[in-house]
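User: Is it possible to get a 3D structure for a protein together with its bound compound? The compound here is zinc ion. I've pasted both below.
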Amino acid sequence: MKNSDRMIRDRKMVEKAIARLTDGVMLDLVRRAGTRAVADATGQRGPRSKGSYSDPTAAAVIRRESAAVADPIFDAVRDISRLLDEMARMSMKLDDLVRFVQTGKERAREATTERCKSCDRIVECTPADRLRSGQCMACYQAQRRAKTQEK
Ligand SMILES: [Zn+2]
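Assistant: Yes, that's possible. Here is the predicted structure of the complex:
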């Protein structure tokens, strides 16, 4: 399989998985997880306002039962949320890399910026904004002045 074919196949798999997650599906997933999540949380924090358990004995029973009950729906939706978060970050990275290959921008800039070790300012590492001994020009010159005064 050619590299380009493999990349296209991978993109199609991502597209297919993402296309299924419409706004409506997301709302439904979160709604389903929400009703179970209450039972899941009662283990540590006591029953949340999912119906009021005014009878303390009943509340204790419910709490004990729900603490033991596994909540696969809640866990699954939590994992979906985490994966999406990861994919969002990966998408930004992907975008960055594609832009770099196509235009030569962004990435090159990222590679040459440094932080001044004294003031933490981002130094562009260009002739106008140079890095000297790990410092921005202002910090470098201030340090040099301080040194000449010491002598
Ligand atoms: Zn500085």
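The pocket of zinc ion is lined by residues 116, 118-119, 121, 135-136, 138-139 (CB under 6 Å). The chain has two domains: 3-111, 113-151.
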